[in-house]
Amino acid sequence: MQVLDVGIEFAPSLTNRDDHQRDGRHSGVEFRERYLKDLENENNWPGDAPFIALDFSHVKRLGPSWSNEVFAYFTKFANPEEILRQIKLVNISRVKESIIRKEIETGYSRK
Amino acid sequence: MKKISSKKIEYFAKKQHREFRWQSRQAGYKRAAEYKKKHSRPFCPIESPYLSLVKNRGEFKKRFYKPLKYDRPKQDVVIKEQLGIEHDFGKFVELASTFVNSRSKWITFDLKNCERLWPSAITLLCSLKQWTDITAHPHHVPSLGSTDSYSDEVNAYLVHSGFCEYVRMDHDDFDPSLFSDDSTVKITRENNTSEIGIREDEIYEIIERYSGLDPDQMEEFNSVVLVEVFNNVSEHGISSGDSGWWTLTQYHPRTGIISLCIADNGIGIKHSLKTGPQQAQLEEAVGQNATDGDYIKAALDENISGALRASQKSEAAFKVLGTKIGKAYTRGSRRGNGLNRIKDTCKKCGVEFSLLSQRGYLNMKPDGTTGHSGTAKSKIFSGTLYHFSIPTKTLHLQENNYASP
User: Fold this and answer.
1) B321: buried, middle or exposed (CB in 10 Å: 19+, 13-18, 0-12)?
2) Where are the beta strands (DSSP E) in B236-317?
3) Where are the domains of chain B?
4) Cβ-based contacts of B233 with chain A (< 8 Å)
5) How close is the nearest chain B Cα to the Cα of A91, in Å?
6) Residue B62 zone, left/alpha/beta (φ > 0; ψ -120 to 50; rest)
7) pLDDT in tens, B152-169
8) Which of B221, B231, B262, B197 is nearest to B335 (CA)?
9) What interface predicted TM-score (ipTM) does this complex get?
10) pLDDT in tens, B280-338
11) Cβ–Cβ contacts within 10 Å for residue B235, how many?
């Protein structure tokens, strides 16, 4: 399983969903396409072992839009528990984890 | 043999040259036509829904920002005592509605008896200046001016907050002991999206230093509120030149709040939603004759978005045993929860949140209850203003630190 230090290898400020927001750099779409490309195949869900571990220790800011685009995107293939089994969250604060969980649940709900 | 004059020779030479040029031009046209035929894509008469939304939004923006003639008689706006959402929301809305939509060629703000201008009032005046800069017809540009106040503190705050520089107004120096730079993020003309992060850090520094929020609340306010508001203003505000967005943050030790204003001169919440992809869903939520205030309420409560790439509910996505029972979203990432998240976080953190968008307004108290909401008779803000009153930890204790109340 690959371990990715998101704050160092990608960006410490994870804010924009796509290139329409802010300066468009380090967006959720860019992250998903760069590091989670293999999960975009329905056949890889639900996986047996974790696919990647995301280390948030150097992440300063994590926005709901970014989280929605990265994590909630996969609710079309799997339920919230299966997503968080495949994508492990490491060294993450309570607040950041709750932001991610809320976005996954919103994406899974159809309302 | 007949002798040909030099004039005639010159005439024939010119004629030959003209014919040569005509032939080569025709050959060029022929080559260009052949190239176009070979390389151009076939014409596709079906326009994608996204492209038609982009086109509609573009056309709406052209109408919205069309040049206006500011040619009506002079208007005097008298500001007495205090002006600001922070002080009296109702009075702020009432006064703003008298001049934001003004077409006067000369607007004078009488500040003589003004005792205090709060950051939201400074933001309102800067927004008006920016709006007239964007929309004024070249031959009908309005003059905006103000008198000095009898209060040195008001005059000094106009300089300190960055207002004078923003509206390019001459000013005297003020007593530097009146205000501290550590407690303010000044208002400036923002034109660089990559500097949003720097501005967020400056605001967060003030929140970290003075607010009464606990570390978790601070982290949530930073990650949800600041991020979502800046995402909104950079996406829905105007993204060209220095007409984008602006922010003013001020710590008020005597009042026990940090006043945070973030604003843009975009098309506003109502128009953004109405020209977005979710019109049908929107009509379900607010009805056909909805006002600006209804749109603000819907944007805060429902999962609706004005973003052009927002997903839509469909009937096909929601069936039970083959029977349609309503519309639903397809699972996956989707937009339209930003304002909802901001509202929830403010309630959790005990932050008072106000939202002004053109004629509509909504004020949410720290406990999450609605204080004021509705639609004014006339515009009260040119674009959209997000205002937050964040409680401080040193309520009423640091009175003698700064004069800023």
Assistant:
1) exposed
2) 245-252, 257-264
3) 58-272+333-391
4) none
5) 15
6) alpha
7) 999 999 999 999 998 888
8) B231
9) 0.93
10) 777 777 888 889 999 999 888 877 776 766 666 666 555 555 555 566 667 776 777 88
11) 23
CB atoms within 10 A of CB A95: 19
User: Would the CB atoms of B328 and A110 count as touching at under 8 Å?
Assistant: yes
Neighboring chain B residues of A56 at a CB cutoff of 8 Å = none
Interior CA angle at B150 toward B145 and B156, to 5°?
70
Pairing of strands A61-62, A13-14: parallel
Which CATH number does B58-272+333-391 carry? 3.30.565.10
- Asked whether the beta carbons of B152 and B188 are under 8 A apart, the reply is no
Query: In chain A, which residue's Cα lies nearest the Cα of B197?
Result: A13
> Cβ–Cβ of B227/A65 closer than 8 Å?
yes
Amino acid at B90: G
Alpha-carbon distance of A43 to B229, in angstroms, equals: 37
Q: What single-letter DSSP state applies at residue B297?
A: H
pTM beyond 0.90, yes or no: no
Sign of the four-CA dihedral B203, B383, B387, B349: negative
SS3 of B72, please?
strand
A17 — contact with chain B (CB < 8 Å)? yes
DSSP strand E in chain A: where? 2-5, 13-14, 52-55, 61-62, 87-90
What the block records as the tokens of B356 is: 């002004």
Q: What's the CA gap between A47 and B143, in Å, rounded? A: 66
- Domain locations in chain A as residue ranges: 2-108
SS percent in chain B: helix, strand, coil, step 5:
40, 20, 40
> Residue B94's CB: how many other CB atoms inside 10 A?
13
